Amino acid sequence: MTDRDRPATGEGGAVRIAALPGDGIGPEVIAAGLTVLRAVLGPAGLRCEVTTHLIGGAALDACGEPLPAATLAAAQAADAVLLGAVGGPRWDAAPVRPEAGLLALRRGLGAFANLRPVVVHLGLEAHSPLRPERLQGADILFVRELTGGAYFGRPKGVAGTAPNRRAIDSMEYGEAEVRRVLAVAFAAAERRRRRLTSVDKANVLATSRLWRAVVEEVAPEHPQVHVEHCLVDSFALRLLQEPRAYDVVVTENLFGDILTDEAAALTGTLGTLPSASGGGTGPWLYEPVHGSAPDLAGRGIANPLGAIATVAMLLRHTLGRDDLARRVEAAVAAVIRTGPLTPDLDGTAGTAAVTAAVVESVERDVAA
What we know:
- This protein is of the alpha/beta class.
- It folds into two domains: 1-116 and 270-368, Isopropylmalate Dehydrogenase, CATH 3.40.718; 129-267, Isopropylmalate Dehydrogenase.
- 41% of the residues lie in helices and 17% in strands.
- The protein contains twelve helices and twelve strands.
- It has helices at residues 26-41, 56-63, 69-77, 99-109, 132-135, 175-191, 206-218, 232-241, 253-267, 305-317, 322-338, 351-367, and strands spanning 15-22, 48-52, 80-85, 113-119, 139-145, 157-159, 166-168, 195-200, 226-231, 248-251, 276-278, 284-286.
- A ten-stranded mixed sheet has the order 2-1-3-12-11-4-5-10-8-9, with helices on both faces.
- The longest helix is centred in the middle third of the chain and has 17 residues, at 175-191.
- The two termini are 37 Å apart.
């Protein structure tokens, strides 16, 4: 059963949300996202049942572990999981990093595919270092494999003593891992503009040669989708030179991590970018792309638009309400176009004011 098939079975038929605010600005932006979620669900006769749980550094401080068993159990029982961000300098010396909680959560939910849309809304091109004419109309969906590759390879670690230390990481993929993420990517391409770019390093890496071979085997099952292969180094350049040339981009874990952050240059900020992770039998995990930004925490100036756009993905993928997702996305686009904006987008507004503007836009759309 996919997450789209999971019924909302909370009390009174509410959609069950496990909120994991995390660290830094996470609690602030997750609160903003939930405010917008309630604003769009109410007029549609729907409601959400939210429970809040610890993860990351906050969980380390309270429980001594970055993903308490109670948090994982609550996430697995929910219809959707809404995550803020984890980590920060205060835990750099901790024996276990807060980020370990995120990796364990992904494994626990069976989240093997990460969806990261990058849309250059009108007004964002002014904040990018790239020329506006390269950006206008850019709309890319990155599909990143999330549970394999170098981040999960064995053996790994540092051995020896200075000056003879050596570090080892390994990269491994199985055919089944590649096929399942490709199924997500091809399905997305069929819903969009029917172009799929597979990014690898097949001229050097054995894992990439397997990856490319499996893409070639799967492609004939989707004859309406045009498929191209790109080496990761040349793609990194082309992404900035001609971003409008791409529709759906699928790649492995490490490359996807790097390329999706590079793609933030198209919008000029990480603060507007959403993501969703899932594909298995568990609920989807929704999180804005940006980090915990501890330097901004508690100041009321964090950009909530990434978390709000993430709520739109929740509406689309978990509730199957594309109409409500489009309503939220239109409100985000309107605020980006006319303001108010937070300082990362050269504005002077705070988190609360931007959130209120999105809610007002949603409510105007409902009334129209």
